[in-house]
Structure formats: C-alpha cells, structure tokens
Amino acid sequence: IAMATPLALILAFLTAGLIVLTTSPWGLVFLGVSGILLLSCLRKFPAAPPHVGLVTIWGERKLTIKKEGWRILAPFPPFMIDAISIDVEKKNKDFQPKDVRTSEQAELEIEISATWTPDKDIPEHLINYVNVGGREKVEDILDDIVEEKIREFAIGNSWEECLRAKADIVKMLIKEITGIDNDLQITGIRRGNGLAKATHDRLGRVSSF
C-alpha cells in the first residue's frame, strides 16, 4: 500500500502528459515531472556483494525487506519511504582468544573460524542486526562470547586436554551461540553443510551460521 501511492502519482503524471501532449506541448511538462519522480524513486540494492533494504517510513523501521535489484521507494515528503541498505554477503571471521590459561597456568593459543551472515529473510532479525550495531558490533560480541567460553573451558583442563579437545570446544561454542545441542546438526554446521540461527541473548537473533 505504501509503495502504491508514489507509483500512482508517477502514473498519473505520465498519463496526464500523454493525454495533454495530443493537444498541447504542455504535455511534455507532465512527462518530465513523471520522469523526475521515477528517477527520484528508483533505488538499486546490488547483487554483488548481495544487499537487501530494510524499509523505513519517516525514519521508522518497518517489517518489510526489499530484495536485491532495482526497487521503487519515495524518500521525499509527503511519503518519506526509504530503506537501509544492508550487506548480507557471507562473512568469514577468525577468533583468536587472548590470555587463555589452562589449569596449570600454561598459556594456550587457539584459533576458531566461523562463517556468518545477517539473517536476511526475517525483518525482525534485520532490525535487531541494525540495533546491535551491524557487522562490527556483532563480531565484537562474538569475540567476547568465544573468549569467555574458551577461558572457562581451559581453566578447568590441562594444556594436553585442551589440545585434544578442539572438537569439543567447537561444539561448546556452537551450542552457546545457536542453542543447538544435536550432534548431527552440530557436525553439519562444523562441516559447512548446516545452517543455524544465532540465539544468544546478546545477539538477539541477528545472524545465521
């Protein structure tokens, strides 16, 4: 309904221009106005890297997503229909927790990699993603979660146990971030064949892994 109003306005000027043009050169004015309106309303959300648009009306975020490609908005009064462009390309992140010590106070170096993307299919999740602070803030939160859980694990185990337990550590992190406790699903996620939503309270369902 919101998009129909500016479209109707453009079509009205276009139709009026075509009708008036048959009897007067003033029809060119109407055609020109319709062209200007159309150019003002067009917005492209690129496919490479993939982007989507989270629709806003007078600055208020709505539960509407514009997919990639050319889309019609109306970012001017009285409509003020716009969209926040969000990069939804898959993102690779390497986590290297610092100051991790085992039960015998040996310093442990461990690296965990993850691939994630903003949840582009559910408007509420995209709004949460924007509220959290976007990519930089999400990765900061993930850094904190990974560091906290690995420190907790390491301090209760020897360095030898920690080195043998990398698979268990990854499983623990997947469970903490996504809430999944099914071994088959976790194995799929570890191999890159699975998909899970982030459910951690600090992330507020913003991303898929």
Write the layout of secondary structure elements.
Blueprint: H1 4-21, H2 27-41, E1 42-45, E2 51-57, E3 60-66, E4 69-72, E5 81-87, E6 91-95, E7 112-118, H3 123-132, H4 134-155, H5 159-164, H6 166-178, H7 183-190, E8 207-208
Antiparallel strand pairs: 1-4, 2-3, 2-5, 6-7, 7-8
Helix pairs in contact: 1-2, 3-4, 4-6, 6-7
Question: Which features characterize this protein?
Answer:
44% helix; 8 strands; 3-stranded antiparallel sheet; 209 residues; alpha+beta; rod-shaped
Structure explained in plain terms:
The chain is α+β, with helices and mostly antiparallel strands and 209 residues long. The protein has helices at residues 4-21, 27-41, 123-132, 134-155, 159-164, 166-178, 183-190, and strands spanning 42-45, 51-57, 60-66, 69-72, 81-87, 91-95, 112-118, 207-208. The model has no long low-confidence stretch (mean pLDDT 85).
The low-confidence parts are none
Which range best describes the helical content: under 10%, 10-25%, 25-40%, 40-55%, 55-70% or over 70%? Answer: 40-55%
What Rg, in angstroms, do the CA atoms define?
25 Å
Give the N-to-C terminal Cα separation: 34 Å
Query: Average pLDDT value?
Result: 85
The portion of residues forming beta strands comes to: 15-25%
